[in-house]
Design a protein that fits this description.
Length: 270
Amino acid sequence: MTAGSRLEKILFGGTSALVLVFLYLPLGLIVLYAFNESTINSWPFPGFSTQWFDKLAHDPVPKDAAVLSAKIALLSTGLALVMGTSMAFAFARFRFIGKELVNFAVTLPIILPGVITGVAMASLFLFTSTDLSTQTVIIGHTTFCIVLVFNNVLARLRRLSPSIEEASRDLGASGVQTFRYVTFPSIKTALVAGALLSLALSFDEIAVTFFLAGADTTTLPLWILGAFRNSRSVPEVNAAASVILLISLPMIAAAAYLMREEGSTRIVQD
C-alpha cells in the first residue's frame, strides 16, 4: 500500500466516522437520557433508572396517542398499497401523454417539505368546509405513503420481463391467475418493503399531522411535541422517543434488506 492510498484510506475513514457520529450521536443521547434518574438532561448522570419507561407505560395519554398513531399508519398504508400499486402498474404497462409529468406529480409529496403539504391540504379542507379530524390526517399521510409504495413496486415491475406474464396467458391462465401465481410473487417483497416504510414514516410524521389534526386528534408525535415544552416531562419524552426508535428502526432495516435482496436476486436471474 502506497503512502497516498494509505492517506486516502485514513481521510475517507475519518470522514465516514465523523458523518456517522453526526447522524447517530443525537439518537444515542436520547436513548441514554431516557435512563437518567434526574428530570434534567445533564452529564454526568446522577444515576441510571428505568422509572421513565414505567411512567410512560402507565400514562394513558401517550398510550392513547400511540394507539391512534398506529391506526392512522395502518389505514394510510392500506390505502397507499391499493392506490400506489395500481398507479405503478399503469406506469409500467401503459404509455400515455404526459407520463413523466404525472410521474413527477405523484412523487412530489415526498419531495416537498411536510409543512408545505400540511398547509396546502389544510387550505383544501378549509375551502371544502371539511372539519379537521383523524380522517383528514389519514388522507394527508396517504399522499406521501403512496409515493413509497409506488416507487418500490414500479422499480420491481420494470425489472420484471412482460414475457413471463405473456407466457402465463398463452398457457391458458386468466388475468387473475397470472397476477396471483406470476406477478404477485415477483412484487410481494416490494409491497412489503413499501408497506414497512409507509408504516414507519406515517407513525413518526409530525409536520403534516400538525396542520391536519383536529382538536381531538393527538398522535404520539404531537404528544411528544407538547410534552417537550414542559421541562419535567422531557425524561418521559426521551423514553417515548426510545420506544419509537425501537419500533421504527427494525422496520426500516427490514425494508432496506428486502429491497437489496430482491434487487440482487433479480440481477442474478437476468
